[in-house]
């Protein structure tokens, strides 16, 4: 099967979050299942190195108002296509906003043009290219199925899949942009791209897609409810028969404590004591006291969705209980200031680095004892999967993919020898306090803690099963009706 994977980012070329890790891992994950996957990305400056000698396979004189080319390159050993449109993507800052974090005001045009080009590739408008499936990821690519539905190219359009990585981000714009989207008037309808009087990119993709996936079974159920569906729960319920939850995997070539070059000391389930060397490295890097007491970590966007406001309020108690914290993240200015203030109140006990650093994130997983993930909602989450792989015990809210991937260390699970982490119900000060105390109680029993670590590291969250499920979904869409 020939699949075009359309996304706004992909590791290791361009990354702002877990979406990039998933998109970057999919080609290798699907290859064993008979899927030839080509990744399609916007031509950000970060792609200059991989497109330096790229072949031009198509040119646009007017792609929603911009000159553009489609370039043929590679991402690792796998095929890559890039939309080279300097007026849209050759700019500083990040993929979605400027250096201050403000969204680019023309994001509607940038990602509509990207989706239009993806639809051209998937419907015969680009000579030499044909795909069986177009797989669009999140709102930035979700208009591609809508273009295939309302304005396809000359050949039979590919079947379409839209994956919701986070339904909170939808790409909503006013009606005034519709005339510039190069769609027929019929597309502006309740079952088309119209959304509360404007244009909804994710909504349009969900209406047009032949299949919808989310990144965990629990999240697939949660988004049918108003508290998680973010206004799209009615559409999800109407199309429930086409919605599937498939848990993300992680790439063991990238996340493996036995081979990770970012770790001062590499280790296995049989050599857990080597983690102490990594713990010392974290203490030095974050200015923390050197000791063998429990070291918590956070690697996260600092937002309310991630429960960081509740965690910020629990830091004094965490220190009082004997814990320390090393935090790597950025986000809401108020929350950044709250964590920095806690570090000033508790020197040697709390260390904070604002920003993101990939090698440091690996070090934190490989040396900290537990990772805190108190998310209010979490479609899948990859951070807890990294924690499991590295024996950094996840302490998580019972929601979405966190609930699907972490086995709570209750007495029954401990007795059965299957526990891998700590779950808590709700994201409240009381729930988080209880989870911290449970974690510290388990840590105080080295035999139980080592069992948790070994169980976590033996859990299989590779892409093997998830890759098979995606391949089966693709195949089902190509079967005769």
TrEMBL record:
InterPro entries: Glyco_trans_1 (IPR001296), GS/SS (IPR011835), Starch_synth_cat_dom (IPR013534). It comes from the Bacteria. Its EC number is 2.4.1.21. It comes from Sphingomonas albertensis. The lineage of its organism: Bacteria, Pseudomonadati, Pseudomonadota, Alphaproteobacteria, Sphingomonadales. GO terms for molecular function: alpha-1,4-glucan glucosyltransferase (ADP-glucose donor) activity. Keywords: Glycogen biosynthesis, Glycosyltransferase, Transferase. ADP-alpha-D-glucose binds at residue 15. The keyword Glycosyltransferase applies. This is Glycogen synthase. Pfam families: Glyco_transf_5, Glycos_transf_1.
